[in-house]
Structures are given as C-alpha cells and as structure tokens.
Amino acid sequence: MLTRWRMSCAALILSLLACGGKSVADQIAEHDRVRVSWEQTSRFAGAEWLDLAVPDAYAARTLQRASEELRSDSEALTREQLPSRELARLHAALSIVRARADALARAVRARDRDAVIRMVNESPRANADSLLRQAALR
Amino acid sequence: MKKLLEITLGIVTSIGGFLEVGSLATSAQAGAAFGYQLLWAIVLGTVCLIFLVEMSGRLAAVSKQPLAGAMRERFGYPFFLIPLVAMSLLGVLVLASELGGLSLALQLVTGISFPWWAPLGAFAAWLLLWKGTFSVIEKGASLFGLITLVFVVAVFRLHPDWTRAAAGALPSMPRHEPMRYWFIAVSIMGASIAPYLLYFYSAGAVEDKWNETDVPVNRVTATLGMLFGGALSIAVLVVAALVFVPRGIRIERFDQIAPMLTPIMSRWGFFLFAAALGIACFGAMLEIALSVAYLVAQGFGWKWTEDARPRDVARFSLVYTATLIGGALIGIVGVDPLAITLMSMALTSALLPIAIVPFLILMNDPHFVGKHGNGWISNTVVCAIVALAFVLAVVSIPLELMGS
Amino acid sequence: MDIDVIRDLLDKQLVDREGEPLGRVDGIVMAYSADAPPRITCFELGAQTLARRLPRPFQGALAWLGHRLSPRGSSPYRLEVSRIIQLGRTIKIDIDGTRSAARETERWVRDHIVARIPGS
Amino acid sequence: MSTRNINVELLLDKEVKDSEGRNAGRIEEIRARREGEEIVVEAYHLGPAALLERLAAPVMRLSLLRALGFHRHAHGWRVRWEQLDLSDPEKPVLRCPRDELVKLAR
Fold first, then answer.
1. Which CATH code is given to the segment(s) B2-403?
2. What pTM, to 2 d.p., does this model score?
3. Lower CB count within 10 Å: N or C terminus of chain A?
C-alpha cells in the first residue's frame, strides 16, 4: 500500500514541475509584459508629475527604478536561450523604453516640464478600453 | 448601553486593525494583474477569519484562558513548542514586512531614501509598547487605522461595475500566468487569516476580563468588524484593478502601488495612501510584537500584561523588544519589501494548520469551553478553508521560488 | 477528591498567594516504592526540566540555553505539593512569589536588563 | 525498601510490557486522590498514546469524523498502583498477566 501512495506523490510532484517550467513562448510573453508594465509605469509617473499629483522625489526615484528593472530584465534576457530574431526584437524594445525612462528621470530632476510633456506624449499609450474588457472589468 | 459601546468599539478596532502591508500589497497586486478575478480569495480568507476571531474571543471569555496558554495546557509541553517556534519566527518575518511598508510610507512622504527608516520605525513602536498600556495601543492604533477607509471612498468615486466585481467572488481558473495567480491567492489568504491576530485578540479578551455574557457580543463584533475589514481589502483590490489595468501597469515593486489614489484624488491621494499604509503597518507591528510576547509568556507561564510597567513583566517585555529588533534587522538588510511581504503571507498559509488545527481541537474540548463548543458549521468551514490554503501554499511556494 | 495527574496538574499555571504567576508545572516528581502506593511529592519548574522532556537531539540545545539564561545554573526549582492552597484552572501555592526562587529568572532579567532601560 | 523519585512527565508514552514481555500500551494518565496535604497515586491508565488520548477525546466529538466512520475502537486498561513495577522507570513492567487488568470504559 505504501509504495502505491509514494508513487502517486511522485506523479503529482512531476506534473507540477512540468507546468512550472516556462515554455519559450511564456518567457517571451513575460519579457514583453515586464517591459510594457515598466514603460507604462514611467509614462504614468511622468504624467502624474506634470499634474503635480506626485512629489518630484517620488517621480524621479520611480523612473530610476524603472530603468534599473529594465536593465536587470535585459541581463536576464542574455542568460536565456531564445530564438535570435526574438532576442533582437526584445533587446531593441528594451533599450528604447530604458532610454526614455532615463531621459524622463533627468528631465524630472531638472524640472524641465516641456521635455517631460514631449516624452510622455511620445511614449505609446496603453489601450485602456481593450485592457479593461480583457480583464473583464467592463 | 455599555454593550452598544463595546460592540461599536469592537467593530472599530477590527476595521482599523484589519488592513496591513500584507492585505494591501497582495490585494493591490491581485487587482493590477487579474482584475476582479481573485476577489474570492479575500472572501474566503475573511469568512475563515470571522470564525477564528469569534472562536478565540469565545475561548478567552469562557475558559478565561488565552489561546497560547490553553494550547500549552491541552497539548503539553513538547508538542506546544511546534506552534510556538513556528509562529514566533513567522511573526518576526511578518513584522519585517510591516516595517518595510512603514519605511516606504515614510519615504513617500519625506522623499528621503528607504533603508534608513527601518530601525527608526521599530524604535518608535518599541517606545509606544514600553510606555503605553494595552487599551491605548489597541484603541489608538485602530482609531487611526480608520484612515484606511479612504479606499472605500476611492471605490465609490470610480463607479465600478458591481455585477462583474461580484462575479470575481466566485473562484475561477486563471486565463494567464497560472503560477502567479495561485501564488497571489495563497498570499491573500495568508494575509487575511493572520494567526497573530488570534493570539492578540484572545489575550485582549482576557486583559479586558471578558466572561460568558460577552460571548454573544463577541459574535457580533467579530462578524461585523472582520466583514468591514474584508470589505476594505476588496476596496483596495477594486481600486488597483480600475487604476492599473487600463494603464497596463503590473505591480513588480512596492513603490509602483504608491500612486494608486492619485488619478482619483490627485496629490491628496498620494499622501493619503502613504498615511494609510504607514498607520496600518505601524498598528500591525504593535499587534505582532505583542502577540509573539503573549505566545511565549503564556506558553512558559510568565506574568504577561501590557498594562503593567515593563520592569514588572520583565521577560514579557524582553520578548516583544527582541521581536522588534529581529524585524528591524531583516528590514535593514533592505531586501525588497514586496518580496518579503508576499513570501511571509504565503508562508503563513503554509503554516496555518500548525496554528489552527490545535485551536480547533481546543474549541471542541468541553474541558475548556464547556457547552460553548464549536458547532459543526464552524468546524467544517475553518477546516475546509485552512486545508485549501495549505494545499495551495504547498503547491505554489516551490513553483514561485523556482520561477523567480 | 480525584485528580488526573497529567490532565489536571502537568503544564498547569502556578500562582502564588496573591495570584501572581510563578510559572507552569514543567515536571512532577513521584516518590515510588515497591510496597506502598506512590505519592506525588512536588512540582518542578525550570528550563532544565523542560529540556529533559524534549526528544533526545534537542535536549542539549535547550539545556545549554536554560543554563545560560537561569543564573542559578541548572538545578530545577521544586515546590512541595503540601503547599497547594487550591487546585483549579490554575494551581495556587502558599508562598510569597516576590522572594521565591521560582521567579529568580524573572528577577534576574528585570534587574540586569529591563531596569537598566530608561522608562521601565 | 528504598523509595526513588520518578519524574511523571518522563513516564508519559513509555511502553509498558506485561509479564510475558508483550506490549500492554503506553502510560496515558495517572489517577490519584488528594488526602489532606498528600496526593496518593491509585492507578495508571494505559492506552494507545498519551498525546493521541489528548487529541482523540475532543476530536471524536467532531460529528464530521464520526460520520466518516472514525468510530472509537481505541481501548485502554486501568492498572492498579501495585500491579505496575517502576523500579526501572525506563522499562515499566506489569506484575501480572494482561488479562487480569480492568478494561477502561471509553
């Protein structure tokens, strides 16, 4: 009786580990999700700073944090074995978003409102309606 | 009339004391990542907590024994060490994450960098415990805790689609990122079913000298208080969903949560969030440090009360001081508070059976609770939810550790 | 009056004349002789008694810790059963807690640590 | 006859062998009575395990478990003080065959 019980335990754990290991598509989707999230976090920090809704120190630190997180994500990218075409696309997108986060951080520290306005308008805006519908919030 | 005052006070203290860094962080992250879909975890956690809080108050009122003391007497010394050690270590870890929340709040308000705040926050909490009495702490921390009602105001100003929100209260399978979904569900349940709340609540009932007549009052205060508390967590989740989802923001780091109220209340929203986070965490730190001290002192039979001067309850005071120092040390290390918070909440779920199963057995022992024993409803509800939390935790924690 | 020694005495809370806690019944000593009914003679308190109740591997650790913490070293403190005033939810003992050795560790922690911190 | 001090809490869960060396259960409880200032031991209760006894009693009240068929079949014996030889507390031995013991009403 005991061996049968131990066998079923091993089967359970194996199945969990299988679904634990991320497939390539999952990894790429995760990188896209992280990048978009930090891109929108930077845009949101800039916009709220322009509305005087968040203090300068918070906006600057969040933008700097976004840049650091994007850097560590691109480092993680180099460690993963992904198809080279996808690798190039992800790296390119990451560097653009990171550059904008750094620029926004500098502009906020320098209190250069015009630069921040320009960069916030330039950066892509998340499609609110489709996101709300996807998450069944509307 | 006295009973009415006691009920309102009981409800107020549980609302104020409910939200802390765990429920705030997990609800916000759940809303941002999965919309209303994880509402069921808060509902289950709150229902379970209502039964547990009511039971711990009833145990104290009927047997005049707080939870930890009754556990030592009922199960004997060697067995009692397991919940003692598990809950004390968990208490220090959860306290560290509360300290992380408080430090972040202070950083948001002052703009000064974050690791420096941890020892200061711990010292302030220690000072209040050293000089204050139990009623000052319980009532004060909870009355200030009412600031967390700002999330309820925010929810009504966002006009959510209530029918879709209600749909979230029914458990459903995740459409994306299943591992993350179950890990946050476990963290939410760990955040709401906080064992330290039971030790604190039962010790408070003994300090306030409850008796059998307080059992019905306790049933009302526990139910309504925790219900409002649960509603607060739901409010945080709904606001996070309606603010972060349309903006495509997922919560990876704690400070991403900070501007949660600014789209609704602009600069006021920013500072109200920081104040709510800071006060909620400070209140929780006091409760956790005291509950570890209650656990250890009652377990070994030392004199324990918060209403005496520290020198008259030397070892009791020493334990809460050590707990705060332990929390501060982990806080100083400066590990990302969101990571500590989520993991300590998930670990709470995994360790729930150690704290709750002996408690359930106690509540069915006529030697302790006489005719006020548990009905089959509370036994089955608590068993089912604790078993669910435990299984989910055992499954999702390894996956999360492997994933990150 | 019938007593279930384990359920009614072991691990129970001990209090002195004024009801101040003395500690818990960590151990119970029974005088055993082959030809007369054994008698429960005294209660034992202290880390050393607690250490002995642990499974073998842990005993060393707690005994060492107990030795460190309790200044009087490792011999456990004993309270004669004859001094019991009242058996019930707690066990009341006819002694003055403030001077009794049962609270020696409490006094040691108070005098050497807590009293030195201002505002205590 | 020499008297020796035995720590009761260490007796708990000790396996008791009967005169033929077979396991007669573990010491779960000690029934005593208070005579003036003295507490005199009358009998020992043997059963599956002390902790199980402490857990089992209330848990069996859970109608849920009884419904699932976990009915109490645990049995135990009541051993009078003179029937138990504790000269070596590590190895308690019965001074009589097991069938002379009184079954515990559970």
1. 1.20.1740.10
2. 0.90
3. N
